[in-house]
Design goal:
Elements (H helix, E strand, L loop, with lengths): L7 E4 L9 E8 L8 E5 L4 E4 L5 E4 L1 H4 L2
Antiparallel strand pairs: 1-2, 1-5, 2-3, 3-4
Length: 65
């Protein structure tokens, strides 16, 4: 998994009825775009994430397609 600053990180809900959490990557802390990432979520929460299998990266150039 690789990302750049400005990409979206989407953590999919793990159980029925749980909403996805969407955040903007504000810092890439790993080498060459690899995790961990500092993410600011839509609810204002900010944290460091090491994405798991329930996570997807939406690259800036994909969001406009």
């Amino acid at each position: 998994m690789r990302a750049t600053v400005g990409d979206q990180l989407v953590q999919h809900g793990r159980v029925v009825g749980q909403h996805d959490k969407v955040g903007k990557i504000t810092e890439v802390m790993g080498a060459e775009g690899t995790p961990p990432y500092r993410v600011k979520f839509e609810d204002g929460h900010e944290g460091v994430c090491s994405p798991g299998p329930d996570t997807e990266i939406r690259h800036q150039n994909q969001k406009n397609k």
